[in-house]
Design brief:
By secondary structure, the protein is mainly alpha-helical. 64% of the residues lie in helices and 2% in strands. The chain contains 10 helices and 2 strands. It has helices spanning 22-37, 48-66, 72-92, 95-102, 105-115, 126-142, 145-151, 153-175, 186-209, 219-247, and strands spanning 257-259, 270-272. The radius of gyration is 23 Å and the shape is globular. The N and C termini lie far apart (63 Å).
Length: 274
């Protein structure tokens, strides 16, 4: 059993909590401390809804790390929590905004300069997140990779880490509440989210039918896991779409500015576009 993440291989399950459980506990403690600091009289305060969302994300992450994955359905539940549901709560907590409020202005400006660098823009695009999340699932189940994770606890843990990080990236690129000037337009994000729905549903159907997949599990376990992916993925993506609508900030429209002509006595106001 790997000491890095709590995981199960075959019918065995860890009886001790691995150090990975410290991740959601530490993240939740740091977030709560920062949120309470913002409630001081000289501070602007912090949303209770944001705090609740982040706490829910930490709880879902801890649940994923502790849950049994003795069969394929349990494995699929673990990936659903790690890659879709926990990231949604963590992202909606807006930890980036909270962190910027807690550091000095110089450090905050330096962090914003790094985030706005041109080299990072492709990484933060929803298509990149889609390729890493949905593409990672197709790679896992249509190649011998999943079979290899059953024999290597370290590889299993790395796959789980990949789904957590890629889920955070995809969720933030779709519905991140932090203001980001280079965020993709809402129609683009909705189109990418629709592509994610199709990718998950198609893979779930292949798993249910046992076609093209390389998963050493009985047919009933394949169908049970595929059902979790199909309906659980739909639920997570509906919640993500609702989060996108809730965090959508319309871009300001450029208005035509009236300017006086060279001689206002000779004609009406002239307009020019910005």
């Amino acid at each position: 059993m790997s000491p890095v993440l709590v995981s199960a291989h075959g019918t065995e399950h860890a009886t001790t909590v691995g150090p990975a459980l410290l991740l959601p506990l530490l993240a939740g403690w740091l977030y709560l401390a920062a949120a309470l600091r913002q409630r001081a009289p000289d501070r602007a305060g912090w949303s209770h809804w944001r705090t609740t969302a982040f706490a829910a994300g930490c709880a879902l992450l801890a649940t994923a790390l502790l849950m049994r994955a003795d069969d394929f359905a349990g494995h699929m539940w673990q990936h659903l929590l790690l890659g879709m549901l926990a990231p949604l709560g963590l992202v909606l907590g807006a930890p980036g905004v909270l962190a910027l409020r807690c550091v000095d202005r110089r450090a905050g400006r330096a962090a914003l300069r790094v985030a706005n660098r041109r080299a990072l823009r492709p990484l933060l695009h929803p298509i990149t997140g889609l390729a890493l999340t949905a593409g990672g699932l197709w790679l896992l189940y249509l190649t011998p990779l999943y079979r290899a994770t059953l024999d290597s606890a370290v590889l299993h843990d790395l796959v789980n880490l990949h789904f957590l990080l890629s889920g955070l990236l995809f969720t933030w690129s779709i519905a991140g509440p932090e203001p980001y000037p280079h965020r993709a337009w809402v129609p683009v994000r909705l189109a990418v989210l629709g592509a994610a729905v199709i990718a998950h549903a198609s893979l779930a159907q292949l798993l249910y039918a046992g076609l093209l997949v390389d998963v050493p599990a009985p047919p009933e376990q394949l169908r049970a896991g595929a059902t979790v992916m199909y309906y659980g993925g739909d639920l997570a993506e509906i919640l993500l779409a609702l989060a996108l609508l809730a965090t959508w900030q319309p871009r300001p429209r450029h208005r035509r500015t009236p300017t006086l002509g060279p001689d206002v006595r000779k004609g009406p106001l002239l307009y020019r576009r910005r």
